[in-house]
Design goal:
The chain is α/β, with parallel strands linked by helices. It folds into 2 domains: about 260 residues, Rossmann fold; about 90 residues. It is about 40% helix and about 15% strand. The protein contains 18 helices and 11 strands. The strands form 3 sheets. The chain has a 6-stranded parallel beta sheet with strand order 3-2-1-4-5-6, sandwiched between helices. A 3-stranded antiparallel beta sheet has the order 7-8-9. Strands 10-11 form a two-stranded antiparallel ribbon. Helix 1 crosses helix 7 and helix 5 crosses helix 8. The longest helix has 24 residues. It is elongated.
């Protein structure tokens, strides 16, 4: 945890990954993030993976460091409480994060009528308001048809929700950008972050829109790295390593460690090319190169290759399961200062991540765990809405909060 956003109050009414991860990023940079949910939990409150207690580790992970208030959002009085929270006064408030529909009681227009300088950040599926999730957007932009074995035309869905994760990060960037403008001009903002636009713009930024218009859809190619040399290889001791050679240094180091200099030079003469200078040539002629490298890996032990690769400037990695990484890898988990071992409401104790960014000259603060659902209801009603104990008690008695 850092204090870059200390004093800022963000109200979050969101579910699943993109919206809550935006709030998580802001909370771990010091903002007070107040999340409201329906009494009993929203649609992501029991989402897998689950702890043995039945608590959602997914919800617990995405809501670390936030405050939680539970409201009966099915009743007009409960919806009024949510609007009052989002629009509560104060120079450091008035930032609302949501994935609720554009129209309705949490529309920007409704909130702006209550607070003129409100900043509303809305994560969406399709830009036209149609519902979508990461996986359906990914199917629409064609990524599953580019992924998988070259000899199989079935789509391959990605297990990592990339557009959701990018959406949360982009939404937090957009929120802070709008906040900077508001401090200069007093203007609020309505920011919409559709996953469809994130996917389309990202593929455009990577040159893939221009590519398909000029050359057609990219064919499936298994684990081969597009446009350069990179793939997984099996070593003599049965380990699988991935090597990536994009730069001339990476390529020459790999060839030297595997003692393939003469063989590769002969192939270059035969093909009339220079692999060190032209990374595209390594990709174009991979059918000729890959058997040479497969044979070289097959005669070498991984334990000898790893230090040789490091000394030779080769970019490589070893395949491992997530369990292996979490329990054995010091760079990722076991000795990474990003993590602190904490006990959570689920009853489990495990390495818990703070912010991914490191402020090099500042000490990391303690990582905060997720709240229990509704844990801060009374505190938020009193401190943000200024309600006294009698008013709060009546809301409990009426079943509007929990």
């Amino acid at each position: 945890m850092y204090d870059l956003l200390k004093g800022l109050r963000v109200v979050e009414g969101a579910a699943f990954i993109a919206g809550p991860s935006c709030g998580l990023h802001m909370a771990q940079m010091g903002a007070e993030v107040i999340r409201f949910d329906a009494i009993g939990g929203g649609p992501d409150f029991r989402r897998w993976p689950l702890a043995p207690s039945g608590d959602s580790l997914y919800w617990e992970g995405l809501n670390k460091g936030k405050k939680s208030i539970a409201i009966d959002l099915a009743r007009p009085e409960g919806r009024e409480l949510a609007v009052a929270l989002a629009t509560a006064p104060g120079e450091q408030g008035g930032v609302f994060l949501t994935n609720y529909p554009v129209k309705g009681f949490l529309s920007h227009e409704a909130l702006k009528a209550r607070r003129d300088d409100i900043i509303t950040v809305r994560v969406m599926g399709w830009a036209d308001g149609s519902p979508a999730v990461d996986y359906t957007i990914n199917a629409a932009v064609g990524v599953p048809l580019m992924t998988g074995p070259a000899d199989d035309d079935r789509p391959v869905n990605h297990v990592l929700p990339a557009w959701d994760l990018l959406g949360g990060a982009y939404a937090s960037f957009a929120a802070v950008s709008a906040l900077l403008r508001r401090r200069l001009t007093g203007e609020g903002a309505e920011i919409r972050v559709p996953l469809s636009d994130l996917a389309a713009s990202s593929l455009s930024h990577l040159g893939q829109v221009a590519e398909v218009l000029s050359a057609g859809d990219r064919p499936r190619m298994g684990n081969d790295l597009f446009g350069a040399f990179g793939r997984d290889f099996l070593t003599m001791d049965g380990k699988r390593l991935i090597v990536v050679a994009i730069t001339p240094r990476q390529w020459t180091g790999l060839v030297k460690v595997l003692d393939l200099g003469e063989t590769v030079a002969a192939l270059e003469t035969q093909l009339g090319t220079n692999f060190a200078r032209d990374e595209g040539a390594r990709f174009t002629h991979r059918a000729a190169l890959l058997p040479l490298f497969e044979a070289a890996f097959a005669t070498r032990d991984s334990a000898a290759l790893k230090p040789a690769f490091d000394a030779g400037g080769v970019t490589w990695g070893a395949y491992q399961s997530l369990h292996q990484a979490v329990t054995q890898d010091p760079r990722l988990f076991t000795e990474n200062p990003l993590f602190q071992s904490l006990s959570h409401p689920s009853g489990l104790t495990y390495p818990t991540a703070g912010p991914a960014a490191t402020l090099a000259q500042e000490a990391r603060g303690a990582v905060a765990v997720a709240p229990r659902l509704g844990q801060h209801t009374d505190e938020v009603l009193a401190q943000v809405l200024g309600l006294d104990s009698g008013a709060i008690g009546r809301l409990h008695d009426e079943g509007l909060v929990a």
